[in-house]
Amino acid sequence: MNQEYQKVENEAQKQRFFNVLLQVLDDLEILAKVPYILTPNYFHKLQKFLCKDDLECIKYFLVSSCEVRKTTEFGAADDNSAHFMSIIKKNNPLLEHIRTQQNMEPTVLHLIEFINTVLGLFQDRLSFTGVEAIEINQKLRAAYHRNKFYKERIEFFTKQQQTLEEELGGVLSQQTAILDGCKVEIEAAQKANKKLMEEKMKQTLKIMSDQTQISEEKQEFLVEEFETIKSEYDNLLISHIEIEKKLRAKRSKAEAQLHSWITKYDTDIGDKQAEFEKLTEQYEELDKIYVKLEEDTVEQEPIYEQCVEEKEAEQEEVHNQCSIVFLLNRSARRIQRYWRLYHLKVSKRRKKA
């Protein structure tokens, strides 16, 4: 129970500490913006947020501050800052207006940033309990020992690497001698390949000459085939010319028919145009009638509104009369009921007497 109580008490103290710091930050942010809103150009805007007494009080503080500082610029109100802050905090609209300002005093801004940093450090440090802090220290010690062990292993492996590099140097010299021998063998193989390629080229030239002769024979055959195809093409061209003549005759016939259709279309479109113009005239006459009806409607609208007002007044009068009749009937029933009760009481008293 004592441990739980101590834990709760520590949490409460920590929360109170954080609340105090947050309140200090809020006051500092307000103080950092106050010098900018108390300039002569901006001071007249505060009149809509302050009453006459508070405004006169603030003016007095500012004038006394300027006299002490021997300057014409408005600054903080010296020893009266606490009372000045109390006036601001009691006025919620003024407080919200000050918080919306962007300009801040650079010196106070640096102090706010420093307190925010300190608050973050306190939150990080106070977020751990004593047991958690001991566990973290133990983990850090274990990490330090592991780091030391790995560092020793790295030094050991570095020495092994140096020894291995020295051993590999000897192996490299041996491999270099082997490569020199391979180069000699490669040169001999290149010479043999060159001789083989020359023989292959001779054989290829012979094959190409044979294929050229065969190609010439094929070319002669293709020339003969070209002559045959040309004669067939001429015959086909003559037949196509005859077909074209027939198609031209059909085309001229179709053009004549199309011309007659176009003439008929022009005649029909003229009739339709006349009908369209007639309908347009009818539409314009109806449009004029519609405009005139709209003007009549606009002229009659005040009369309509007057009728509506008279109707509402009559309805209200009828409702009032009904309400009066209802109240009179209700009052009469109550009077009758009270009169019967009174008459009954009087009769009972007389009987007793």
Automatic annotation (TrEMBL):
Coiled coil: 147-206, 269-296
Record-linked InterPro entries: DRC10 (IPR042815)
Keyword line: Cell projection, Cilium, Coiled coil, Cytoplasm, Cytoskeleton, Flagellum
Domain of life of the organism encoding this protein: Eukaryota
Subcellular location: Cytoplasm, Cytoskeleton, Flagellum axoneme
Its biological purpose: Component of the nexin-dynein regulatory complex (N-DRC), a key regulator of ciliary/flagellar motility which maintains the alignment and integrity of the distal axoneme and regulates microtubule sliding in motile axonemes.
Family listed: Belongs to the DRC10 family.
Protein name as catalogued: Dynein regulatory complex protein 10
UniProt lineage: Eukaryota, Metazoa, Ecdysozoa, Arthropoda, Hexapoda
